User: Which sequence fits this backbone?
């Protein structure tokens, strides 16, 4: 693998001398769109995602202390922590339509942590699918038995994603680490191999595994005594809804990553429209991280039941307090009339 000189690359909105009115209007419109999307994300998705994530953590700790853990709880905890970290890293979009200014080294460190949680959430979800798949089909191999041990699965996923993230950090490039640049979590100045590896191991292979899991689930006959297919899917709607949402959002994101790679190979910086679409794809992926936590909290039965129980308890307390206040008011009125 040869080193690449990426000093020529820059964002279209930061490099082109805009002279014609059409170009100026295009850049203003692009900046308005990305600014509005950023504000919507920060105002609606971030609070919802963080509240859902904190609720999941509290419920898990409570169930753990009461020894009421379900088989998927640890995997969902792992997935939740990854998405919470992703939400915090997404605060880098607050400066949009501008970009963070950081050294190449600092930007590489940010990218390492971003890739770690990106890969981690993807492969933890695959582990969750395998766990559900094995509920319908009896385990026969050591690999199948291993997937029934959530702690072992989590350890393997963390090790694998750490190696992938380290590889991506190397592919960002080690030259000019002291220079300052406009920084995204997927650095623009990364080598083309960076995006190719990210697409392959962060979307291509996981998507194939996900399709394989769904194919086996639909095509293979379940063991005797197993629940019907629709009952099985209905018992875990959070997993399948999250999978569909992750696939659609990350498909758009990865298409834009590959398109950016094509521009790099052509030694072109692209247009402001290309830059806008990449920014939109990044925010859409961050929205998916927030929405996934909300879906898990609302549709995963152990978490949903706990939330409903707390809501019902609060309603009873409110009704009791209202009843007590009315009784005290009635007694006061009777005393005053006497």
Assistant:
């Amino acid at each position: 693998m040869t080193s690449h000189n990426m000093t020529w690359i820059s964002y279209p909105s930061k490099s082109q001398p805009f002279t014609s009115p059409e170009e100026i209007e295009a850049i203003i419109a692009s900046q308005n769109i990305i600014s509005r999307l950023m504000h919507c994300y920060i105002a609606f998705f971030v609070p919802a995602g963080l509240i859902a994530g904190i609720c999941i953590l509290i419920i898990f700790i409570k169930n753990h202390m009461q020894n009421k853990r379900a088989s998927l709880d640890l995997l969902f905890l792992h997935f939740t922590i990854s998405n919470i970290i992703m939400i915090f890293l997404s605060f880098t979009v607050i400066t949009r339509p501008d970009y963070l200014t950081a050294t190449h080294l600092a930007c590489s460190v940010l990218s390492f942590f971003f890739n770690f949680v990106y890969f981690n959430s993807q492969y933890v979800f695959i582990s969750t699918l395998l766990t559900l798949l094995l509920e319908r089909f009896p385990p026969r191999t050591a690999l199948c038995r291993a997937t029934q041990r959530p702690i072992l699965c989590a350890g393997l996923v963390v090790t694998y994603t750490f190696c992938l993230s380290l590889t991506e950090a190397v592919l960002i490039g080690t030259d000019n680490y002291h220079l300052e640049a406009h920084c995204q979590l997927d650095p623009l100045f990364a080598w083309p191999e960076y995006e190719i590896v990210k697409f392959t191991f962060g979307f291509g292979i996981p998507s194939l595994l996900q399709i394989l899991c769904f194919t086996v689930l639909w095509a293979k006959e379940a063991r005797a005594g197993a629940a019907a297919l629709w009952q099985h899917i209905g018992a875990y709607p959070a997993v399948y809804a999250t999978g569909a949402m992750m696939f659609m959002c990350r498909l758009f994101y990865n298409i834009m990553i590959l398109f950016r790679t094509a521009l790099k190979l052509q030694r072109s910086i692209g247009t402001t429209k290309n830059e806008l679409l990449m920014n939109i794809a990044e925010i859409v992926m961050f929205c998916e991280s927030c929405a996934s936590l909300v879906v898990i909290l609302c549709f995963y039965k152990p978490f949903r039941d706990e939330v409903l129980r707390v809501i019902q308890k609060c309603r009873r307390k409110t009704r009791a307090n209202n009843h007590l206040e009315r009784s005290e008011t009635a007694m006061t009125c009777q005393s005053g009339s006497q």
Observations:
- Residues 21-324 form a domain with the Rhopdopsin 7-helix transmembrane proteins fold (CATH 1.20.1070.10).
- The chain has eleven helices and two strands.
